[in-house]
From TrEMBL:
It comes from the Bacteria. It comes from Microbacterium allomyrinae. This is Class II glutamine amidotransferase. InterPro entries: EgtC-like, Gamma-glu_amide_hydrolase, GATase_2_dom, Ntn_hydrolases_N. The keyword Transport does not apply. Keywords: Glutamine amidotransferase. The keyword Cytoplasm does not apply. Residues 2-278 form the Glutamine amidotransferase type-2 domain. Signal peptide: none annotated. The lineage of its organism: Bacteria, Bacillati, Actinomycetota, Actinomycetes, Micrococcales. Transmembrane segments: none annotated.
Length: 278
């Protein structure tokens, strides 16, 4: 499948998380111990909200079909910009072709979306799902992935007003269509969504065996646990990271997000809520 990272907090050079850690996202693209596939070399994407941008301004995107570990442009951009909120994603293609429009994250106006997982037997139910997309949104589907269709279903169901309810309704439609076609476990994945201010991170699968997902412990607590860890000085007190796998081996630095849970990250910290729990 894939691996991803989302950051929100004080403006930061993205390379601090994308490139520098012991087990960075770029390192995960070569070796992902907790992933369904150990190598994620079928392209990558980087989406960021610029520091100082006007409220409501759309994020910027850089996507490539190159392996993340081999792309100098990613290194240049990640070291040149500063961002208070960014997404990065490395892809292991599960069927749809390797092309830029199939690389995550996906963007619509001020929203970013990325997904690790799959809609099982997507081709069998694709027509039903695509026909459920708002006709006004359909022309903005550029690629061929199940993830982009899922994003557009969430937009159709009111993502911009209530992200948790909209993603839930989109997944329930996937499950209904899948079950109608004889697919036992239609939905698998972890999902990140943001409007540039708040970050929503979902962990859910029809089988109850979702892809791994973790978030960082708050920085003041980590500084108290590890007063001599110089690496923590790069982060402000409100820095928050959600990631497919821990970025380092510091005990207690990352907390696993539970099954059927959405973690909401905003200026006040993390808030966990049940999501489509049975």
């Amino acid at each position: 499948m894939c691996r991803w990272l989302a950051y929100t907090g004080e403006p930061l050079q993205p390379s601090t998380l994308i490139l520098d850690p012991q087990h960075s996202v770029v390192a995960m693209s070569l070796n992902s111990p907790l992933g369904a596939e150990p190598v994620n070399g079928d392209g990558f994407g980087f989406g960021w909200y610029s520091d100082g941008a006007s409220p409501g301004a759309p994020p910027s995107l850089f996507r490539s079909i190159e392996p993340a570990w081999n792309d100098q442009n990613l290194r240049e951009i990640a070291q040149a910009v500063r961002s208070p909120l960014f997404f990065t994603h490395v892809r292991a293609a599960a069927g749809p072709p390797i092309q830029q429009t199939n690389c995550h994250p996906f963007r619509h106006e001020r929203w970013l979306f990325m997904h690790n997982g799959a809609i099982s037997r997507f081709g069998l139910i694709k027509r039903d799902l695509v026909l459920a997309v708002d006709p006004a949104l359909y022309p903005t589907i550029q690629g061929t992935t199940d993830s982009e269709v899922l994003f557009h279903l969430a937009l159709t169901f009111g993502l911009t007003d209530d992200p948790v309810a909209a993603v839930g309704e989109a997944i329930r439609l996937v499950e209904s269509a899948g079950h109608g076609a004889g697919v036992q476990f239609p939905m698998q994945g972890t999902i990140a969504v943001s409007d540039g201010t708040t970050l929503w991170a979902f962990r859910y699968s029809s089988q109850g065996r979702s892809r791994s997902l973790f978030h960082s412990t708050d920085i003041p607590t980590l500084r108290g646990m590890y007063p001599d860890a110089e690496r923590l000085s790069a982060f402000g007190d409100h820095a928050q990271v959600v990631v497919s796998e821990p970025l380092n081996d510091l005990p207690g630095a990352f907390v696993e997000v539970g099954e059927s849970t959405v973690a909401v990250l905003d200026g006040s910290g993390y808030h966990h809520r049940p999501f489509l729990a049975a």
